[in-house]
Structure formats: structure tokens, C-alpha cells
Amino acid sequence: MRLARTTALLAALALLAPAGSTSAAPAGQITWGVHISLAPTYFDPAETPGLITPFMVLYALHDAVAKPMPGQAFAPSLAESWTQSKDGLVWEFVLRKNVRFHNGEPVTAEDVKFSFERYRGTAAKLLHDKVAAVDAADPLRVRFKLKKPWPDFLTFYATPATGAAWVVPKKYVEKVGDEGFKKAPVGAGPYKFVAFKPGVELVLEAYEGYWRKAPEVKTLVLRVIPDEATRLAALKRGEVDIAYSITGPLAEELKRTAGLTLKPTYMPFTSWLVPVDQWDPKSPWHDKRVRQAANLAIDRDAINQASYLGLSRVTANIVPHQMEYFWQAPAPRFDAAQARKLLAEAGYPNGFDAGELSGDMIYGTAIGEPAANYLNAAGIRVRLRLMERAAYYAEYGEKKLRGVLYTGSAAFGNAATRLETYVVGGGRYVYGSSPDIDGLFAEQVNETNPRVRQQVLHRIQQMVHERAMAIPVMETAFLNGVGGRVDNHGLNVITGFAYSAPYEDLTIRKK
């Protein structure tokens, strides 16, 4: 077998003993003002929904076979190394010795196998279809046997494109059941579950037995503060140390406030609208001219300036530019007159009632609301409906919503992972698909020539653009506020990651 990913000694030592490690007992507390309502589904890696949101919790409570870490896209974590067979069909992971879950049970190959087999989140069907078997060869060695060579195995398995590589304790889950696990999760991460008050806060405590290093901060509190102005006020008063997602005039106010720092993070995060009724021949959205009109009706630059201080990047593709196999679409245009002309040509000179534009309360406000205003101005009359984030994406994934939906994703991966979730038939958030696109996607899955794969994935993105299947808005910057008490806040430390991490490296300023 050959080494698939370089796990050089220096990288391994850096992970085992990062700079600034200390033998002192964990002390102090860091509190976040969190922009979304935390839900128990985020405590279980098996339910990861194709969003970056759950990893805010997973990086604390749990650990993965491999995951992105500072300077490494595929960092050895619970696995110290892995190899791939010459025929590309077998991936073998060697687990670290003496790693334990928070309840004292050892992390074994059986736990890795169990966690993969119970995984039911985004891309679960694709992963399970591609993997012929998972064998726990011995307590510290697990083998994944593929049906065919699959170039994207690690991308789908070992990045936050999915939660499939995050490991939970088999015996404990079997004892308490899925619902019991979400009420009292046990993981192998740097922090242990202490308490959760729905709609209020999640409290975590340092796990000093964490294999990489004992955390320096004793207590982490993720406090739910859905209102943006209230989050900023809490940051100003010192009630929270970091406030996620501050936009618009409040972000300007944050920049001007002495003692606070505006910290944008940049992720593979695209935001777009999708008219899910386009697959209904009776819907106005079935006419491509209507969808083209909607794309022309939205002033993306104005939304960027108003909501994100111009720090985001307008786009005409749902795949972000930093992802492998990205295709550069023509720059989007704002042309309200041409939008109204296209509507008239499609038979709607007076516009039409497009029903609801649904979204989550965070980005549905910052992006969905102004987008709705532009659509209304063009004659595409929509009524904004905002929901709590976890509930919204649950209904979205269950195909219960109609009309126009705001969506977005900062999940890791490449163009294939993004298209699988949002464009290709059978994807978690796909309401309808095109046989030719589905066929092209199936064609590239097992293609081992990167140049050929790129051509096919570029063609799919081009087809999505030409057919106006989506209404891309921007690659969204994530604006955060940091108070003066925190030394290492962990923002922008892991390339492309939205939130503070790794949690075990965070520090508080010494008085």
C-alpha cells in the first residue's frame, strides 16, 4: 500500500505539541454570542446537514478520523496515518493509541466503523453506495473498501463536506439511543458536555485527557442571542467575548467602538436563491426567462455594501471560487429594465404572485430581505418568511417548502460536493433535477483523470448557469466582533473555517 496523504513527522509533532502548550490546569471562561439557535441535532455528527453550522459544536465535543486543522486540509486526528492501496480500492486508517472518549471508553476501529455506518447526514447515500465494506481489522486499524476507485473519497469523508468521519462511542450510543445521545452527548473532543438550555446556551468544560493537548480555557459558553443588536450590546458590555455575525450599520458601529475588533472570516460560503417550483410546468418559474429576470432584478453590489461593508464577493455561481473545479461564470448584472422586459416576454407584463420567499433568520434577513425587495420592485411579488435555522433547513431537506428559498452553504469540499448536495438528483436539498446533469455527474464520480473531471464539472456548472437554475447572490463574508479579553480567538486559524477553532488552542489575556 502507498501513503495517500503525507503525514510527515514535523506535522505530527506540531499536532501533538502545538506552540504555546502548557501543563497548567485549564482556567477561565470564553463566551460567544451565537447568531443561531443551537439545536440538539448539532450535537450528533450523524445528522450533519451539509452546512458549516454544526461544526461550531463538533470541533469542541467530538473528534474526527481526519479533519482540517491549522495549515492542513487533511490533518491526522484520531487516525495518526492512513494509506491507500495501489488499485485505489482500499483505504486503511491507523488510529492513535490510548485515545479515550469523555466517559473513559477507548476510541477503537469499531467506533469508527459504527459511526460511518450510522451516518445519515448530507451525501450519506453517495458515501454508502461507494463504500463496499468497512472492516475493523484490529482495535486500532480500520479499512474502507470501495466498490471502485473514487478520487473524492477523502474530500467527502474527511472534511466538513460531511460529518461521516466524526466518531462517536458505539457502546454508549447503543445504550442510550439516538435521542438519549443528543440529550447527553459523549465525544472524544477537547471539551465535554456540561449543560444545554434550549434557546439559551450550551456549556462545555475542558477535557484534560484530550490527546492533542489539554485546553487552556476551562469553560466555553455558546450563548444564543438571535438579535444582532443585542449580540453587539452584549459584546460592548463584556457579557460575551466574541459575537458572531454582525452586519450592516451594526458592523460599522463595531468598527468604531474602542476595545472591539471587527474580524471577518472567509469561507467557501455562497448564498443564493432557488425557485424550487421551476420543476412544475404550471409555475411561472418553469419559464427560463422568468428565472433570468430574477437574476437581473437583484443589485448584488448594493446588498454587499449595505449588509457586509463591501467585504463579500458577488458571484453568478453557487460553487465558491476557492473550491477545486470551480468554473468562472460571467459576472452577474443588475438590469431592472431588462428584467421587466423578460417578464413581459414570458407573459407577465404586470408581474406575478410568486408566493413566499423563505429563509433562515440570519441570512434571510441580511440577504433574503433585500433580495425580496428587488424582486418585488421588478414585479416578482414575494412575501418574506423567516424561520429558525435548524428548523428551516430540516423542512428544506424534507422538501416541504415551496416558492423561492434562500439558501447558502459554507461546507468544505469541492465543486462535486456542492453540486451533489444542491443540484444533482437525490441530493439533500434538491427538489428536481435534469437527467443530462445527473448523467454527467455520475460520469465524473469515478474518473481518475483530474483534467477530465474538471471538464465535466465545469460543464455542469455552465449548464446550471445557462438554465438559470439558481439565483446566486454572493460569496458571503462572515463578520464577527471580538472583545479585548481574548488573546487567541481562533478566527481564521483554520483556512476556510467560519468559527473559532481549534478550541483547545484558545487563550485569554493574562491580567
SSE layout and pairing:
Blueprint (H helix, E strand, L loop, with lengths): L1 E2 L5 H8 L12 E6 L20 H7 L1 E2 L1 E4 L2 E5 L2 E6 L5 E6 L13 H10 L5 H7 E8 L2 E6 L6 H5 L8 E2 L2 H14 L7 E7 L3 E6 L12 E6 L3 H10 L4 E2 L4 H9 L4 E5 L4 E6 L12 H10 L2 H9 L4 E2 L21 H10 L6 E9 L2 H16 L1 E8 L1 H9 L6 E6 L5 H8 L12 H11 L4 H17 L4 E5 L2 E5 L3 E3 L18 E2 L3
Helix pairs in contact: 9-11, 15-16
Give an overview of the whole structure.
With 511 residues, the protein is α+β, with helices and mostly antiparallel strands. It is 31% helix and 23% strand. It has 16 helices and 24 strands. It has a seven-stranded mixed sheet. Helix 9 packs antiparallel against helix 11 and helix 15 (435-445) runs antiparallel to helix 16.
CATH topology of the largest domain: D-Maltodextrin-Binding Protein, domain 2
Strand order of the largest sheet: 11-12-13-2-14-22-15
CATH homologous superfamily grouping of the largest domain: Periplasmic binding protein-like II
In total, the number of domains comes to: 2
Biggest beta sheet attributes:
7 strands, mixed
- The residue ranges in which pLDDT falls below 50 over 5 or more consecutive positions are 1-22
SS summary, helix count: 16
Total beta strand runs: 24
Computed Rg: 23 Å
N/C terminus separation:
53 Å
Q: What would you call the structural class? A: alpha+beta
Helix content: 25-40%
State the name of the first-level CATH class of the largest domain.
Alpha Beta
Strand content: 15-25%
Q: Any idea what the CATH architecture of the largest domain is?
A: 3-Layer(aba) Sandwich
Shape field = globular
Overall pLDDT metric: 94
